Amino acid sequence: MQRCPLCRSWGKSSFGRKTAVHEYPYRDKPWVEDLGRATRQLTVKGFLVEDSVIYGGGAVIDQRSNLIAACETAGAGTLIHPTYGELTVSIPSGGSRLLSNGITAATLSSRSGRSSPG
Predict the structure, then answer these.
(1) pLDDT for 32
(2) Is 64 inside a domain boundary?
(3) Which of the residues 27, 52, 105, 114 could staple to 40 if both were Cys, CB 3.0 to 4.6 A apart?
């Protein structure tokens, strides 16, 4: 997989447990069944910078092509997050969106589910 530097502008994460709520007639309290840890979901929004001194990467057109190829590669990939570190992630269908002003900038919004425990 190609290296795709991305300047991160914001992100959000969701963590928790999978549960099934069982409700019964004539009972005031439900029974909540714990089904284990839910998939950790991470949403990252960032942008590409042409010839960045900090991130490198070269031309935005080439970075965009590498990013699209990385998102379309089968199987899980490695995401290096500034605070979570190295994560193994999978991008679901429709999970990545790329907006471009044509030549020098592109914005990526991506959702991913962590595929490795930790």
Answers:
(1) 96
(2) yes
(3) 114
Beta strands 41-49 and 105-114, pairing class: antiparallel
Residue 52 exposed, middle or buried by CB count within 10 Å (0-12, 13-18, 19+) = middle
| Helix ranges (DSSP H) in 24-100 | 60-72
Which residue, chain included where needed, has tokens 């990939």?
A: 77
Residue 57: CB atoms within 10 A of its CB come to 20
pLDDT, tens digit, 9 for 90 and up, residues 15-50 = 899 999 999 999 999 999 999 999 888 887 777 777
**Is 70 a member of any domain?**
yes
Q: How far apart are CA 51 and CA 92, in angstroms?
A: 30
Domain membership of residue 52 (yes or no) is: yes
Give the number of domains in the chain.
1
Residue 72 lies in domain = 7-114
Beta-carbon-side half-sphere exposure of residue 60 (alpha carbons within 13 Å): 16
Residue owning tokens 């991913």: 112
**2, part of any domain:** no
pLDDT digit string, tens, across residues 57-74 = 778 788 888 888 888 888
